[in-house]
Specification:
Elements (H helix, E strand, L loop, with lengths): L1 H5 L2 H5 L7 H6 L20 H4 L47 H10 L4 H14 L1 H15 L8 H6 L2 H10 L20 H15 L10 H13 L4 H41 L7 H36 L5 H17 L1 H4 L2 H10 L5 H15 L9 H13 L6 H17 L6 H4 L11 H22 L5 H19 L5 H8 L4 H4 L2 H9 L6 H20 L15 H28 L4 H7 L10 H4 L4 H17 L3 H14 L7 H28 L4 H18 L10 H13 L5 H25 L3 H21 L5 H17 L20 H15 L13 H23 L9 H4 L6 H18 L1 H22 L3 H16 L9 H16 L8 H16 L3 H9 L25 H4 L53 E6 L14 H12 L8 H7 L6 E6 L19 H4 L2
Antiparallel strand pairs: 1-2
Helix pairs in contact: 5-7, 5-10, 6-7, 6-10, 10-12, 11-12, 11-13, 12-13, 12-14, 14-16, 14-17, 17-19, 19-21, 21-22, 21-23, 22-26, 23-26, 25-26, 25-27, 26-27, 26-28, 27-30, 28-31, 30-32, 31-33, 32-33, 32-34, 33-35, 34-35, 34-36, 35-36, 35-37, 36-37, 37-39, 38-39, 39-41, 41-42, 42-43, 42-44
Family: Belongs to the SCC3 family.
GO biological process, one term: chromosome segregation
GO molecular function: chromatin binding
Amino acid sequence: METGSSESLEDLDLSSESGSIYESQTKARKRSKQSLPAPQPPKRPRRNAALRVTSSTSSSPIPDPPDPSQQQPSPSQGTSRKLSSGRVTSEESQGISAKDIYDAVCSGKSAMVTVVEEWLCSYKQSREEGLLVLINFIVQSCGCKGVVSREMYDSMENAEIISTLTKEFNEDSVNYPLITPGPQFKRFKAGLCEFVRILVHSCRNSLVYDEFLFPSLLALLTGLSDSQVRAFRHTSTLLAMKLMTGLVDVAVAVSVQLQTTQRQCDIENSKSPRDQGSDRLEELKTAVRELQENREELSFMMNATFRGVFVHRYRDRLADIRAACIEELGLWLKTDPDNFLNDRCLKYLGWTLHDKQSPVRLQCVRALQGLYQEKEFIGRLELFTSRFKERILSMVLDKDPDVAVEVVNLLLMIQHSTEDDLMEEESGHIYPLVYASHRGLASAAGAFLCHKLKRVVTTQSQDDDDKSNNAAFFQILISFYIQSEFHEHGAYLVDSLWTVAGSELRDWDTMTTLLLQDSGLMYEEEGALLEIMICAIRQAAEATPPAGRSQGKKVLSMKLKKIQEQDRTRITTHFIPVLPQLLSKYSADAEKMSLLLRAPLYFDLDMYSSTQWLEKHLDLLLSQICTIVKKHTDAAVLQACALLVSTLCSESHTFSSRAHLVFSQLMDELTECFNSYLSDLLQGAADEDGVYNAASALKRIAALCSAKDPTRWELLDSCMELLKNRIESLDFDTELLVAALKCTAFHLMWAKLNAVNLNPAEVDLTHLRKKVRLFCRVCQTCLSLDQTEIRDQAFELLCDLLLLYGAVSVRGEPVLRALVHLPSDSLRAELASFLLDYVFNDSENIDLDDEDLEKKVALLQKKRNQLGGYCKLVLYGVLDLSAATNVFKHYSKYFKDFGDIIKETVSKSKLINPIQSAKIVCLSLQQLFSEMLTEGHDQQDFTEIRELARKLAMSFGVDLRRSRKQLVALHLAQFLKSECPSAALSWPSVKLYRRSLESRTSKYKDPDEESKADSSLHTPVTKRKRITAQGSASSTARGSLLESSSIQSRLHTPALTSTVLKHRPKRATAKKPTATVSDSGSVLTELESEDEFSCGSNMRKVKPAKRGKASSVQTSTQQEDLDSHLNLLSLIEDDISKRAGSDISGEEEPEIEDYESDKGSEFTLPSTRHTSASILDQLFD
């Protein structure tokens, strides 16, 4: 672009913002003022004097932006003349009024054509009165209460009228009709745009060329668009842009009509003189001259509007104004490419791609989409594409997902339209987005990838057979999946391609044929295809996106449900006979077996029993599962088998009894195998093969125990005896002990479930409780071992069992109180030590290389699981609430890894006992400070304590009324009773301080507490007294009014830590609030904005607002320090005291702002963790 490359946006910013281009054009045709109130002639601006002043020598109606050196600032519009006294409305009673038009536009229900026709009738009766009605309608649409009277219209210039209206503008609210929320103004913008469109369309053949209506209207809008009042500027710019769009449509129609008439004139002129019709030729020449004049008139008006409004407002401070300008520019470029589709106009789109606000970038990208979808425009867009392609490619990582989605769609259009494809390097910016967490962006990237893959298939294969093309498609897709190196994320890839390549991904026959071929695919390719096939089966059977991409609960329509049922039936019909073949072929491959065993979970399993010939396949499947369990010891394979066993044994299926019989026989064989080696193991006479075989059998039994009740095989005593024997002999075989721990724990869990269902005798309950106590002692011993796997497994099982046998689990079952087991003091200390030594410790990361990311993520996930288990013990009353100090004091240091878990724990603890929770927060800080003094003072440690205090203080919130009771309790307990010297308690100021705390506490009644007191009548469970272990002291203080009120926990019993289903992470991104913009005209928007496109994760921080007065002054004496504390306390008093209310009135609440990191990308690829990033979804449900 010649012009685009030579001009910079900085040069354009030197041009005057206050000057009105159109004002200078129309000033010559403005009527002269008369001193006498005599009748004035109608105002008819002269075309030559008014419109041709600034006409460009170029044939295009849109000139280059004005040269800053030549453009002089116009006089200020702030001067005004004396306004006539009173409001004089100039609308005649019999004609339509401005209010009538305004009401019709607001309602959005009236026929806009009728409204425009009524106004045109009044305008034809009196041009001045009709125009005045339209002017007052525009003023009212801006939200201004002022009225332009006939005297003002006759005696004032536009600048003076605008200045007068500015003084009368309603400043009570920042809202105006275009941005006012609510149902009343919901349709206002659409109605206003529709009114302008119909007005121009109705005047296209007559009034557009009367040299009065539209020039006068555009002159007023140009002046208003330079106003410093945002309402004037926004509304007038929108109206001017819509008028311009209407004029462009009229100009295109005139150009087409001119070409047709000129062609007819040339044909008539080319005839011989005797064949020519003189009257006909003269009529055609006259029509051509008239059409040329009309086109020239329209060009002058469009030229003035473009230079007077668009050139200034496309860089306005308000993003809505900039977006409106760019949206209309896209329409002009597409509607009238002969005059607008050139480098002089395209450069505005290129510059706006760098806008700071996402709505403006979004409109810019959409405008480009409208251009690139027209193939005849591609040649004119080559220079633009070459210059701004790099910027467009970088915008696929835009922080606004809507913009990124449209950019990917734009690149797909460029790929379709241009002859030269995007280079592979350029396409590499888009490919990884198929794994993005935002589903719309991933689907757009999937469409781009699918287009690329199908183009490769088309070029390589000349065959029209769909089956061969699908086979080639899968081979290329497999190659892409392997090269992308995002394994275990096939579900995200399938979901991205599901909309555009659903037919290929549902071709089960082609996929299974490729898998069953002996020489079809390589080993790695078979694994990739298997994963893609299983993910496609899940997508078709469940019709839901993978974890992390679900956007709320979406109810499937009847059509989608029907498609889902059809897909499920096809999957079952095809895979029932084929699955045994696949299991047989890959029986020795653990990784592939774990994938194939997931397929029956998505079958319509009732089809096994509905058709007789399919029953043999059921028997074959059951026998193959038993064979797989006997052959494999891999944890993933055994877990997949256990899940399938649980599904097949479900009572909802008619064949469940057959499945129970088969798997019971399998358990008999495994138990017999284990018992055959048990005596040798206990005597220490077992060789390595015996230990391995026993461990393998016990590992298989442990996997099946998670799906099937093992109590009938009575393995509990054998496993307990084996555990004690191995620990006493210090013979720690990791696989054997871990399997024994699992078997014992699962046996105790099933026993608890049977006790709930069968109501056994109290003797049996007491015996079971002893077994639980004995197992807890064994696990406590394992916590101090050096064997990592044994130690970690023991901790997780302890968390599960203590919770399952805790007091909260039998709250509704008084008969089962004998089963309650609380941890001893020594066990509590061991659990806390485990956290400090192995969870809040980075020593294990030292041995890992930076490249070994998978191991790091697995280690972090294990630590998160362990921390979540401990937090559950605290929140559900198994451990005292004060044990949370072991977690809270690491909140700041380990915020990146465990911040979400600790934050949720703090929040839940406040629901249980807000006052005790506040004290625990202070206790955590005290412990950390004491540790710092013991280990030696370090400035860095003190900085960490201060940062921790800041984060914990944020948990109280910014509403001091809600946290008042906790803060008062801290002042009474922590300061007056602990920190304040005894001699100081008799000081008058201290007495006044204490009396204020106690009296305010007695008078203040929290409304939330009242509602909870009322709701407690319907609560089935009363406030329970904490059951403590022998020798442990209760942490609840008695007799204190402040500590007596606590919120009863209604938390339900959570799922078990080690046995919960695992999900993908779901990340929540906070939105950044739109910055408040100034109203002082338009200024330069920084286009090359680096921070706008540095996508990062969002964190919230509290930034105190600037206060008018200082709330406290640091003094040197203790007396003044106590007074300052008393003054600070007055800031949280309630509205009962008027004096306190007046003190608070000068203060402002802290503002919560979003902090945006300048690293990373907003569109993160799915985590490789196997559980939710916010594990609290599992831990606290």
